[in-house]
């Protein structure tokens, strides 16, 4: 088997008296959609925070694209090719959709230094063309000039995806992209993620089981900070331990 | 938030203002009011200092209560230069800016690791350390400060006359405003404003947030140093009082009255505050009471500052 794109080894984190993560081992292969599921409070978002660099582990390590990134700051991991979305929508609400994505393009190493003090950004057509391209990818091409705060919830979630994509990631960390969306928006989001999955590896945290079983190549189950099972959707469905701990009432 | 975008009429207005200021000394001389040339110079210098703080506070979102340290450092460097025989402003002013900028770089490198009220306290602490350093520096006059025996020359032209110094201060302010306006619209300014709004988001877009803040902080410090060097030339004295925390407070009040995050906020604040002082001081020495009421009024009724009443921040 090829080396995993993301490999988390024996990751552990304690908050006060609570073991939020207990020696979690998890590998995401290049090209797959890997879903991380588990009951509320299982530590899924905490896990994402440790992968993205928002939090540092007590012990264990995170390896990304063959490199130990455990000590790297968030922005360095982004530069290395790791992008994330948030459980709660996190966009610049006062800026247009296009400006939101343009900021993401600007932050990329291959778009040149941002320590430029003189030339107006307005003239940088390449940057805005690229941003427009990402808006198209998520179906927001007609909303480029709309103020982000005025977009519908589903559109804001899509915008957030466009911003993550604009960093040119190898790995997308999606923390509940379906959270708070209606059934129609959800269906559109599933389609969108399916489409994105052709180009980029995805680690997906999601509660919507229909979406998870439709999208995921492999699923890992986290319960009380412990990884109880990793496998194909079939294997996870039939795992007795998982059924007992979590899926029982869903399936 | 939105990115800063000046109103359409802002450019013609500022050009008109610049023309008016260019004619001001001649006009005042014709009216026999030369005294006010000096006052106008003082306003320009403080407008520059307040603008440099507005870059840090308004665009960078860093509430620094130690900005006077860089202002005062600039003044001292000018005085020290003069004492050492460097009487050319083209040499002394860049030195003042470099010294103040480097001090800001060092202070920022440590302070910017903290947030919120801790940042306010640590910048205050550093400024007070600098203040006591100059108070105890006998070689530089200690408590009394260091005086300049005479004003410097700028590219060979003497700044001895009030009119010459006025034009020097005007040139410094105009250049700063030009840079500031360009910067707000350039990549750096956009990144800085977005960081002010949501630093975690920017970090997650791959921006080294700390570095952007630090550069803005140092740039603000350097520009404050330039203002300090000009002030030392005007008053003929670099005194520790320039570094005191009350001075930082005055600059902060100027920015708040003028408009935090508005390009012209620092200028408007300096004009309002100094004119108020100039007018009221003739009536009562307790003019600070009126200032207090004004500040209260601004915070309650125009919380974005006076400049916000005229300019738009987004389009």
Describe the structure.
Chain A has 251 residues and is α/β, with parallel strands linked by helices. Chain A is built from nine helices and ten strands. Chain A folds into two domains: 6-81 and 169-249, Rossmann fold (3-Layer(aba) Sandwich), CATH 3.40.50.300; 91-153, no CATH class. Helices cover 34% and strands 24% of the residues of chain A. Chain A starts with 5 loop residues before the first strand and ends in a 6-residue tail after the last helix. With 315 residues, chain B is an all-alpha fold. Chain B has a domain at 36-244. In chain B, 71% of the residues lie in helices and 3% in strands. Chain B contains 13 helices and four strands. Chain B has a two-stranded antiparallel sheet. A two-stranded antiparallel ribbon of chain B has the order 2-3. Chain B is globular and about 55 Å long.
* Main sheet strand line-up of chain A: 6-7-8-3-9-10
Please state the overall shape of chain B, judged from the principal axes of the Cα atoms: globular
> Pairing-aware structural class of the strands and helices of chain A?
alpha/beta
Mean pLDDT of chain B: 93
Helical segment tally of chain A? 9
Largest interface: A-B, 35 and 29 residues
> Strand content of the residues of chain B, in percent?
under 5%
Note poorly predicted spans of chain A.
Answer: none
Task: Report the CATH architecture of the largest domain in chain A.
Answer: 3-Layer(aba) Sandwich
Largest sheet features of chain A: 6 strands, mixed
Q: What proportion of the residues of chain B is helical, as a percent range? A: over 70%
Biggest sheet strand order of chain B reads 1-4
CATH class of the largest domain in chain A: Alpha Beta
Q: What is the third-level CATH name, the topology of the largest domain in chain A?
A: Rossmann fold
Nearest-angstrom radius of gyration of chain B? 19 Å
The assembly state of the depicted protein chains is heterodimer
